[in-house]
Design a protein that fits this description.
Length: 184
């Protein structure tokens, strides 16, 4: 089902490219429904004069309105076409290069996206340096902050590594973590 309020908002806020789109969708529902049900509506021919009127970015807006579950993959197609493949591929993580920049007062922080997990990469790197027995892992969450601080303090004196996992579950504790790191 089309969220009409969002489509109408796009029509009102546009610079003319979406003019009349609500009426066109209502009057040509079968064609628009067929377009929306395509596996890849972004890459499919749209009804009416809209293929000539809309830019690729405008088509993204229509996908967002009519098929929001496809927005992420559609955004990738848009970025590849507009900027190139380079901008959608995550950079290769080279632990050796990152390791050279570390010190006891400079933590390594991975900001992860859905599905990304550098744990195996870190374990392999530690194993290659015979360091794998000196890594502590802690999954943050309810009440784990003080345990994490203890592990970090021990790590700084004993030359260990600490992997803090699931930091998103301990947002309120992040200020405490910042204070710990600043006191190195």
């Amino acid at each position: 089902m089309v969220p009409w309020d969002t489509l109408y908002s796009a029509e009102l806020r546009s610079t003319g490219q979406f003019e009349g789109i609500c009426a066109h969708v209502a009057e040509n529902w079968g064609a628009w429904k067929s377009w929306m049900e395509q596996e890849d509506p972004y890459g499919s021919q749209m009804p009416g004069e809209y293929p000539e009127k809309l830019t690729p970015f405008d088509k993204l807006i229509l996908v967002k309105v009519m098929r929001p579950e496809l927005l992420q993959q559609t955004m990738s197609k848009f970025l590849i076409a507009d900027l190139g493949q380079y901008f959608i591929e995550p950079p290769a993580t080279n632990m050796e290069i990152m390791y050279r920049d570390l010190a006891t007062h400079i933590p390594m922080i991975f900001v992860l996206s859905a599905g990304a997990d550098p744990t195996s990469l870190l374990q392999k790197f530690a194993y290659e340096r015979e360091f794998n027995e000196r890594i502590d892992y802690i999954s943050l969450g309810q009440g784990q902050g003080p345990k994490a601080v203890k592990l970090i303090n021990n790590a700084t004196t004993e030359g260990r590594w600490v992997v803090l996992q699931n930091c998103h579950l301990a947002r309120t504790w992040m200020e405490d973590l910042e204070k710990v790191v600043l006191n190195f």
